[in-house]
């Protein structure tokens, strides 16, 4: 059986063979193909554990060495990195390059919905099965949405951390707030804790706040959500039971979908600043007036 050090050293050798990212699963099968480890779940977990050490503790392998194709974020963050002048100049360059478009674009000029807001907000959910509830709300509110698909991978969290670093440099807001939604069970609480641990302690982000929005004891009681016993097979159950009680397990899925969607929307809108929104509208108006003036001058030529 390969030692942890051997697993890490061979992983580094295999990664050096590829120009781009590969998945951890692909790396695992390189080991199997080379007959270095057996093809079973136990060996796969040993390799993953070694890679956590190599990336988080010893930092022998970069965080971005692997890609995670099973988890993703939805949302357009690019315009968050621009100020209004850059956005306006970009809009003008597009308009001036197309005559047919140029004549009808004053009303098209816009700024991101959350432009100028004091907080940048994202919504993260434990379960991809609830994407049909969360995603429409996030799309309507122009909020980035991410599904952890259970315990989030380091690659997924690193992607988020790098995005947050870039956003922080843009200085368009005061704080990054992650609204987190997990089941009320040992795994759900572990997932939420991992969000905090990685963003704060591993990636050292200071301008980020992770808020547990659901599922809470108060919500379970208020919505009369059915509860069950924690699984004794879960290694995290013992500690969790001492805090929450044996029969306190409840799932996000138990919330009526429309109620859950409304809950998420309200959580988002609680962070909305009306004064910032009014300033954004003024900038949009000024931009449209300037573009209209350009159109009028263009028509005179």
Number of domain units: 2
Instruction: Determine the structural class based on helices, strands and strand pairing.
Output: alpha/beta
Unreliable stretches covering 5 or more consecutive residues: none
Lateral arrangement of strands in the main beta sheet: 1-3-2-4-5
- Compressed to H and E, one letter per element, the order equals HHHEHHEHEHEHEHHHH
Separation of the first and last Cα atoms? 79 Å
If you consult CATH, what is the topology of the largest domain? Dna Topoisomerase Vi A Subunit, Chain: A, domain 2
Q: Which architecture name of the largest domain does CATH use?
A: 3-Layer(aba) Sandwich
What is the share of helical residues? 40-55%
Per DSSP, what share of the residues sits in E-state strands of 2 or more residues? Answer: 5-15%
C-alpha Rg (nearest Å)? 24 Å
Total strand segments: 5
> What is the CATH C-level name of the largest domain?
Alpha Beta
Q: In DSSP terms, counting alpha (H) and pi (I) runs of 4 or more, how many helices?
A: 12
Global geometry: globular
Mean pLDDT figure: 84
What is the makeup of the main sheet? 5 strands, mixed
Topology:
Layout: H1 4-15, H2 24-33, H3 41-57, E1 73-74, H4 84-96, H5 99-102, E2 119-125, H6 131-140, E3 144-147, H7 154-170, E4 175-181, H8 186-202, E5 208-214, H9 217-222, H10 237-244, H11 257-269, H12 274-300
Parallel strand pairs: 2-3, 2-4, 4-5
Antiparallel strand pairs: 1-3
